[in-house]
Every structure is written in C-alpha cells, then in structure tokens.
Design brief:
Helices cover 62% and strands 10% of the residues. With 60 residues, it is mostly helical.
Length: 60
C-alpha cells in the first residue's frame, strides 16, 4: 500500500499531493492573470471543470 501524506485536502497518495500542488499553483497564476488582464474568470467554472481543464492543459 502506498504511503499516505497529510495535505491540506486530507490524507492522499504522493501522486495526488503533487497533482494538487500543481493545480493550486495553476489556479493561483490564473487568478493573478485575471486580475491583470480580466480575460479568464475561474469563479464562473465549476470546481470539477477547472480540475479537468488543468489536466487537459497539462497533457498537451
């Protein structure tokens, strides 16, 4: 069984912790860019959709 790591989202496998940290950094950057340019609003996206959007961007 994989080692579970305590993160701000609870106990998760290391892969999920890394994915969550990358997602958090991505969201923070998008919010910063939104304030600068006003072109992309994360608050209008449902939570699951923003996570799917992140992984689709990461694969390409």
């Amino acid at each position: 069984m994989a080692v579970m790591i305590h993160s701000k989202y609870g106990y998760e496998p290391p892969e999920w912790v890394q994915a969550d940290s990358r997602l958090d950094k991505w969201c923070k950057d998008k919010k910063r860019r939104t304030k600068q340019h006003g072109a992309f609003n994360l608050e209008k996206l449902p939570v699951g959709l923003s996570r799917q959007f992140f992984y689709a961007q990461e694969k390409s």
